[in-house]
## 1
Amino acid sequence: MSNHPENDPKYIGLHVNSGIETPDSVNSEAVNEFLKRNKRAELSAETYVAAIRKGDITLLSQAVTLVESNNPTHQKLAQEIVLQCLPLTGGSIRLGITGMPGAGKSTFIEALGKTITSQGRKLAVLAIDPSSEKTKGSILGDKTRMENLSANPNAYIRPSPTSGSLGGVARKTREIITLCEAAGFNTIIIETVGVGQSETAVHSMVDCFLLLQLAGAGDELQGIKRGIMEMADLLVVNKSDGDNIDKAKLAAAQYRNALHLFPVSESGWNPKVLTCSALEHRGIAEVWTTILEYLNDTTANGFFQQRRGDQVRYALYETINEMLKSNFYQNQEIQQQLTTLEKQVVDNNTSSLAAANQLLENYFKLNAK
């Protein structure tokens, strides 16, 4: 055969048969038939809500995906689901946990989660993972780091990407909290990406804010921002085990002294400093007991309800800001003008302030029509 050079007459005694045509590795007809038979029907908001109320984790996860989606159709359906779930919410403990990278947040949450679920409570962990500024992708590895908790039938772990927008993730996380509470989860833990701007967003949606710190990592008091410490209702020095026990005790003493210098909290609560070993599960029960003590105190003096009210108002204005920003950048005419003005700013033909003013003026004119 001409397609086999081995069959050339100069190769005496050598002959290669052409064989049969290589079939496709995948049967296209079978795949199409499978997709046709298994095509997911579009569910109504009522169907989602009914399933969520029954604790259906599969449809809860699908509803969370709708909330996280930027697809307008998905967003519309998600808002219907959230609105119908609102009357079923408000009865959970919402706990925010943050700390510097390496402080052992995932191990700590898994240990704390074991204590919480052992008391008959249902726990949802919403882990906010950082998105790459270049690729916009996220690792979303908390389920692998909390392997034992992931297998617990009374626990639900859902990592969510920041997608480069703190305002967006704050709004979506609030909506996911609503869905989880409607599904019967009476304890919600929100884990942040670490010490940074996301802490302010998380603080605005939780009842108790816990700061996890690591001893022996240099000057402890320089290792954390004062603003984060002022937000903390409870500070826990983790990894108090082995040769690190004395360092953890020293770090805790330094933090107690530092906290005395801060103004009295509006809640009337004096932030406590504890040590623990999440790896050895020591001190975890004391942490949970202190969290409950804080919640009891703030409920008794009315701060708990005041904080919930402040959070709802904060969420309203944050959502307005986020929606205005999104609407502005999605406007096609603004997108075209932005490309032109961006080049002028880069070429120093106009200032960034002048370009911004022009874009906003044009945007408001377009919306006034």
Note: Residues 41-88 form a domain with the Single alpha-helices involved in coiled-coils or other helix-helix interfaces fold (CATH 1.20.5.170).
## 2
Amino acid sequence: MVRKKVVVLGAGRVGKAIAADLSEDFEVTSADINRDALALLSSRYRVNTRITDLGNLEAVGDAIRDADLVVCAVPGHMGFNTLKTIIESGKDVVDISFFAEDAFDLDELAQRNNITAAVDCGVAPGIPDFLAGYFAAQMQIKDFEFMVGGLHFGRTGPAQYLPTFSPSDVWEEYTRPARYVRDGKLITMPALSEPELVEFEIGGHRLVLEAFNTDGLRSLIRTMDGRIPNMKEKTLRYPGHIAYIRELQETGKPWTPDTWKPGDDEDEFTIMRIHIHGFESGLEKKFSYTLFAGYDKEAGISSMARSTGFSCAGVARCVLDGTYKHAGISPPSAIGAAPGCLERIFAHLRERKIVLERHDEV
């Protein structure tokens, strides 16, 4: 049987995980300008490589010419224009670039070209949105909140933190105003605001983290408007991180992505908690999901890359085999609401040892 062709744009930490995952079942080509990253990827996995300047949109068009599906895993500042190029090229796409622009500005273009364009299909945004879409189709959700963070054991780096994804995108989280929904009204607050301490139990050990507002609801603000009256997302870090970032912002101290660049072999983890409260058939329901993922030392893939990349790969499989097809921009909540998709994606995550545990309170 002829294997379908997938082109993954970007061979960074997450792009590497996606290419490795999909190479098990598809003919995968990884495109990037970084020769070392491509060489490392092809030495470990059955992945073709193509040296491509992803900042050159004409080169991007050439790289994806023969693809059955494109995965866009470029940095956020490149994401919107890259996604537009993919859609104009007539290719179905799953995107995790998490750009600041509104993906729905490309909805008409995607519909006109009959393209399935799934966006924000990572760990968060991604997994919480899948759940929001899935449960909003079954019950009346009153409150929806999630907290997520990627952290290193041992509290390494500036203010006890090193980025587990693109450092420039991390900094964007700390500067972009945070939006959430309260009583059906959109609230805008500064990033890093409304801090609180949150307790987790990991392997029998108590872990206290600092949670603060960031702009992580993204498309949920639009897709769940009028359906979920209270929605909020917060980022998790070790206590003291907010004070450090605010000092950088207030004093104008120099900051570059390289100052926060962790090594590829540093032990780290991704943690997330999702709370859902509402009513189903008149009965009150209150439950939560927790996720804890660790670094895969053998494969050399970080927890954030695993949880983000394997979520994306699960969506890619749904698009490739026709489980999910929709002409236009598809936010992850729409994918979660589509028959069979949430189960398929979560089963794929479990196979990769990314497990979400449900805890019912009512």
Note: Residues 5-119 form a domain with the Rossmann fold fold (CATH 3.40.50.720).
## 3
Amino acid sequence: MITQAALARRLTTIALAAALAAGLAASGRPALGQGGAIRIGAVFAVTGPASSLGKPEKDTAAMLAAQLAASGGVAGRPVQIITYDSETDPTKAVLLMKKAVTEDGVAAVVGGTTSPESQPMADYAMSAEIPFMSVAASTTLSVPARAWVFQMPQRNDVAAATAMQYLVALRVTTFAFLYRNDDFGQDGLVGFRTYARQRGMTVVDTEPFAATDTDLSAQVARARIKNPQAMVVWSTPPTAAIAAKNIRQLGMPVPILESHGIANRAFIQLAGPAAEGVVFPAGKLLVAGKLPAGDPQKALLERYARDFEAANKYAANTFGGHAYDGITMLLDAFRHVGPDKAGVREYLEHLRGFVGTGGVFAMSPQNHNGLSTKDMVLVVIKNGAWDIWR
């Protein structure tokens, strides 16, 4: 039985330095003792349609593995991060997770780059009773809460609520909704329909598309007929960029609002001039340098971005940040309770005030995401760069 005092001690907020370097080797807390390596499975879409998300996730894991090796691991025990490539295939993702658990002996798993991958992985986590740190955003991954599943990105419903602030500010009353026809896009549609009703807005057209589509001009043309005041696109690159290009190519001068799934340079590179002026909700990582000095995330965000770029020679983005949050949250749990799966699950479920790249997490038994609209900002693309929309 955990006493209130013991639980309170467990829930101390840690910063990056305490989590990785000095804190891992000399935190001042009682060591858990010597032992074999603690293993973390990391299943990311390193290749396939979602590779622009999965590659920075994999590169973040490699960066953290190097930092852990240099710092001596966690409480005197080495930590191995074993990375697997799902190829953006949900079936392969869950099979790799099973391999990680049953053959490679991992204590927890981070991954599921896309929502279609994370859903079966979450189901397996429940049956295998192993902590799973999902890096996908579908609301249904953690609503209702599932005992062994924790979600690192801001959920779709939180992102949709943040995105709607843009439409409200523009006094938009009608919009069309283009979405990737899978768990991620369908979940976004549910959120937007709900918030639109609450604000007296009308969704005049909904247009699904496949993640592998290479042209969305037919969907855009159908939406244009309805004369919407704004176009909302809920996807990730490359289709998110294709949609923006087709909207501009068909001469629609209306605002384009996209999802938090475009929070990486791949969108700007693929969309080209069509990216200019696009607004989307995101965590604060992309605009860390523009945050006020007192923001609780600023120092960690700037440190992560600096370390990532030094290690990988390209800019950090939101998706690598999700992997960072999942891995460092597990490291914090290992420092306190060791690699005991049940102990890790219980620790994470009560973790509050954890400063990550996605926000300041406040987990509870009822909320295994722990983020809200206060952890997001509206970002606008200006001159090929990120800025805070005002």
Note: Residues 51-71 form the longest helix (21 residues).
## 4
Amino acid sequence: MNDELPPQIQAITGRIADGWADTIDVGPGWFDLLARLDRQLAEISPGYVIEQCKTKFGTLRYYAHPEDADHPDAARFSDIIRDVEDESATVCEDCGQPAQQVTIRGWVWTLCPAHTQQRTNPSEMSAG
């Protein structure tokens, strides 16, 4: 799957720590968020490490830490991650447009109206 990711997102997989799955498990609508997050974190800690990058309960989860456990900007590092995770609750996972969280068949997603409709009634979208 990672071979299908844009180069800027593939580069992020190189930060994943040994022993963790080498995947970025989010929709393409969040790739711009990830690229910006990576740039911001790399400014603080160029060799920062990721353990996981995934979707959980309709928002981005980015488990990462500075390369140095005693990094002086560790709190700012965590705040940046939290801010982008919070922002992901307003960005469509599929296309990056403004969105809101919805529950479809027991799963929480952050989707724009068009993608909410597509996931709610997939047969209507393919018939049109």
Note: The first strand starts at residue 49 and ends at 56.
